[in-house]
Amino acid sequence: MRLEPLLKPDLVLVLDGVGNREAVLKALASAAVGALNGVDQGVLEKELADREKRYPTSTPDGVAFPHAMLADIETTVVVAVLLRPGVRFGVESHPAADIAFGTFGCAERPFGHVRLLARLARIARGPGALERLRASSDSSELFKRLIDEDRLHG
User: Fold this and answer.
1) Which domains occur in the chain, in start order?
2) 92-102: per-residue pLDDT in tens?
């Protein structure tokens, strides 16, 4: 599964001074709701928060993968965010996440969602990928770099 067809320029953001995990989840839901027909932002926020409470989605590399799967979601949406400064996602042994990929998909098609998460993880683990993404000066540059990283993975 390629990221490029799912990634939209208006869903790639650089957020300064967000402050905490709840604010990041709210920003992800707010960005995604416009691309999801008929799905309530509050429902998205609650689903993201519930998922994080069950098991935080941060990694030891400073990346977080918050995600929500609902039966009402018809199309998969990805929101990519560069956070300045990073935000803790609940695992004390992990650094604050300064990159987050919010993913939203249909609960009745979980395999596609798992494939998307795997693709995002491969992109993030690519040699030098996180450094290149973190060096983005704005959302346009971050979007371009994400597309470039996606293309490196065939």
Assistant:
1) 9-152 (3.40.930.10)
2) 899 999 999 99
